[in-house]
Queue: 2 jobs
Job 1
Amino acid sequence: MPRIAYVNGRYVAHADAFVHIEDRGYQFADGVYEVCEVARGFIVDMPRHLGRLNRSLTELSIDWPVTPGVLPIILREVVRRNHVADGLVYLQVTRGVASRDFAFPAGTKPSLVVTARKADPAAAAKRAESGIKVITVPENRWDRVDIKSVGLLPNVLAKQKAKEAGAQEAWFVDADGTVKEGGSSNAWIVTRDGVLVTRPAEHGILRGITRTTLFDVAAKLGLKIEERGFSVAEAKAAREVFISSATTIAMPIVAIDGASVANGHPGSITLSLRHAFFDVAEKSPA
């Protein structure tokens, strides 16, 4: 079946989905996005994703492209038309189309694009069984990474560097050696005492939706969480290390900059979080 996309009020073939060359997302990265996991026929944590979308739009003074109540209908329809039972649905909102000028244009309608694609949960589970590797890179992004902006060039370069190094993710690290987050994920460690540690999300990192739901999962499993910074050195010495995102859930890290974490195998706490996630997460029928 051909893929279908939603573009500014129309459902069109993915191959024919286009936006105008003067869309401000294309020219200025003047836009935001969200990615929701689709699992077992449900859109996972959609209310929380749309809540974060509202925050991002508000921070950038971009209007909603449709009324908030309509957007979930569009997401479900794109998922349905693409026959996605397991995968992801992506939405992007930009300030819209206007003659190229840095200042906000007056009266421009925001642009909305929604796409969906399938994924193989068995492949993801197999990846989790062996774990993935990360490298570290110096933090070089703008200060407002708490906004889920489409301006991701530093992330692109970091993840390309990871790929060239045989790794699957890159962690941005402050000048003092404190881990911030991954190119497309939040970073976690598990201490020798079994405590989960992740950096506070008030400033300096994106408040990941999966990260937030993992707090609920941890509570169900009786696990303690500390919100504090941790260094690369502490991560390398940790009992377990993992990342979280809508596309990875809780994914074990088995090596950092080529150095094995613990025994070089995924840890039991990370896998228990992963296995319990779907039962705890909020599920909206797709």
Job 2
Amino acid sequence: MKNFLVLGLGNPLLCDDRAGLEVVEEIKRVCPDIDVEVLYTVGFEVLDKVMGYKSVIVVDAARLGNPPGTIIQATLEDIFNTHSLVNSHAITLGTTLKTGYMLFPDEMPSDLKIILIEAEDISHFSDKCTPKVKSSVHKVVNIIKDYFTAC
């Protein structure tokens, strides 16, 4: 099994929805030893990316009603047991991952974390995040660097 993966989810064309992708871009620059992947969907393609890794952090934008830029760290169980997370498309991510653990338990990560960044604007086309979300992107990169200690 490989050690670490950071998987960024989002839409590169929508303002803050690209937050997970920006985290991956920055991780790639500052921590070349950490494997990174990007996906524009939360379907079963996620399983193809995470299977075979010991430790995975998935980063995505969310609209949960928190102040823009709020960072939420969650586990797979949190997604199903926390009411506010059920209103996010993270529930689809959770369903996909849970299916992977049921069907391929030996190939799924033993350590999986989900980091959500509260989006301010996910409806306007832009190749940049809003300032509050951009600030949180940098904070999430530092959280990941500290977690993996591979830098």
